[in-house]
């Protein structure tokens, strides 16, 4: 399901525009372990209720991958009090929108309603948590939905296996090594009892955070939260295994053939530390220097000036336990993938040996401040950030203070972090090429 939220309608804008100032919030915990965060903003007559569960693809059995993403779909099937197929009808008939999304680390569900339907949103999320109907009809239905999604977004999408191939090659022990959408054969082989056990283990109040953000009366919201969520039983404590990857000390070389492409891609990927670390944030800045926009170093040099590539880019895939920093390029004939890689390496060496200018650092900090303001400019953005900072970072107030970390990063840190992580012997080099069968046709 798409992460973005669609407009509620012409009568009002989704969530309204929130202040770029400090985000005020209140947090507390119910007796069953459910963490609650409230953010009041009366600027528009809308309210979002969202629940983020600390379960993602990394929590799956290696022989049953895809469960977390599957539950993103399955938990819309219905509950004891919401008939099958009625979930979306209830939401839309009451002027709302809803959706969900899954990553390797968490699953997020939300509804956005006009303010006068806050109670409905809370009741629906409590229903999802308290007694969803998980039966064979729902499993079989959603199995077909997920298969179609995989065909559309992965199997038949140009470069659709790009990220999955990177993960498979740079992680050997950690569950990040498999794709979030998982294996269709694993889902086919799973029993109903396995799905029910997964729900019982992870979709419990003590493994979740509830966010209410927007236009609402706080005391009334607290009464409804207690009414609908307070009686839900606490789940058993979840014991998570720690997976430690050995450092990459020599270049990993891999190749993948994609029948959906005609232009090959060269990929250089580096394993990086948890997104909670300062180094991960420095790598975000490095990514911006190298590839954020047409004025970035890689784009300007390789695409604009030398016309060696049709496209060039870099991004940090930030995650709770480890991350990855990925650079990719699509060579323009007669240039080869190796030519592109040499140019990329040359720019990285520049970052490792020369400090960026004070002017460039200021530009960079301004860009990140703008991104920070934008991420907190809507109610749905604030709700997502509050949930993420609590559940994955362990500090809700990072919604206000993380920008200070970025603003404190120095030119020397940018140079030193580039030296620490972005070396040829610490990476995967993936040749992502058209399949031979495709080339012969």
UniProtKB/TrEMBL annotation:
Annotated keywords: Hydrolase, Metalloprotease, Protease, Signal, Zinc
Residue ranges annotated for the Peptidase M16 N-terminal domain, each copy included: 36-158
Gene Ontology BP term (one): proteolysis
Signal peptide: 1-20
Superkingdom, taxonomy of origin: Bacteria
InterPro entries: Metalloenz_LuxS/M16 (IPR011249), Pept_M16_N (IPR011765), Peptidase_M16 (IPR050626), Peptidase_M16_C (IPR007863)
One Pfam family here: Peptidase_M16_C
PANTHER family: NARDILYSIN, NON-CATALYTIC MEMBER OF PEPTIDASE SUBFAMILY M16B-RELATED
Protein's UniProt name: Predicted Zn-dependent peptidase
Organism, as annotated: Flavobacterium micromati
